Amino acid sequence: MTSKQHPGPLSGIRVLEFAGLGPAPFCGMLLADMGADVVRIDRIERTDYKPEDVEARGRESIMLDLKSDAGIALAKALAARADILIEGFRPGVMERLGLGPDDLIADNPALVYGRITGWGREGPLAKQAGHDINYLGLTGALHAMGTKEKPAIPLNLIADFGGGALYLAMGILAALHHARATGNGQVVDTAMIDGVISMMNMIYGDFHAESWIDSRESNVIDGAAPFYNVYRCSDEKWISVASIEPAFYHAFIEAAGVDASNFADQWDRSAWPTRISTLQTLFAQQPRDAWLSRFDCIDACVAPVLSLEEARTHPHNVARQSFQAIDGIIQAGAFPHFSRTPAVTPSGVNRKDSNRDAILHRWELKKS
């Protein structure tokens, strides 16, 4: 078989992605970033992609009417040539289309069939709609983050991308390794709530050990500790402090210029509220960059809280080329880095039904 050859560790791997929202396209982006030949099936009614739709970067598109026999036939033909399939529909949708794993793995026994849902495919909530904070709400994670008055909303980073896309990608690559060794594909059934609960394992372990208090702003890393917190400066910018280890804590106290006698016992929880108030007053007296200059080259675990604009131009991120311009859109590069099979700057966002003939020729379905 021939395949589109991109640089990267997944060069030569064919991925068929059914267009959706959230974690499924983000997983497709990750695989494309690593060099996989990802072809996305777009429905006819979908609006076209724009360069700023960066989660759609790096792959080509075939537009199919999945309500027609011809569309289903071509989707099945593509799946028969794929190493990996990704879908993120509600339970039962792919089966009703005749594109469920039983149908497709019968035609392609080595196929890794990756699927992602929010609630999972079983359970009372399986068929209900939901979004990131709904899934977080069921895992304990949303309850654990924020202030005493209100849970924090952590964008859609945790359930969609962390518990969803990253766990889907890990599962797919594990199943691909097995398929390459045995010739047997399988279904990778990923639920965002499962991924988030998995990421919460340390917290649940501490909770079982009674070293985690089940109330916001009551623990070391949830805002209760003065040495693991954020502080507003005089210019309304913020600074982050994470001086947990004693050596970092002492370095922080010294550089901050507070009365060390009032901060002597780091783990005296009864003193934490007063110390937070002292540090809030202190940091409010100078602008953020003045504080940063105090902590420059000191191991005190202090860093600025950057805006989106500032993050793109910070010298550390610039030195690492963390952000790259693709089609004029500043966005993340391909991560992680590989020593033997490095990926290059990802290609941009292709429009719907881009290069259909070339795709079909490359996947050996039709001569161009």
The level of helicity is 25-40%
Number of strands: 11
Order of helices and strands: EHEEHEHHEHHHEHHHEEHHHEHHEEH
Strand order of the largest sheet: 3-2-1-4-5-6
Number of helices: 16
Radius of gyration over C-alpha positions, nearest whole angstrom: 24 Å
Quaternary: single chain
Strand content: 5-15%
Computed structural class: alpha/beta
Instruction: Determine the N-to-C terminus distance.
Output: 16 Å
Describe the largest sheet: 6 strands, parallel
Low-pLDDT runs of 5+ residues are none
Principal-axes shape call: elongated
Average predicted local confidence, pLDDT: 95
Short description:
By secondary structure, the chain is α/β, with parallel strands linked by helices. Helices cover 39% and strands 15% of the residues. The chain has helices at 23-33, 69-81, 93-96, 101-107, 132-139, 141-144, 157-182, 192-199, 201-208, 220-224, 246-256, 272-283, 288-295, 308-313, 315-319, 356-362, and strands at residues 14-18, 37-43, 60-64, 84-87, 112-117, 186-191, 228-232, 238-242, 302-305, 323-326, 329-332.
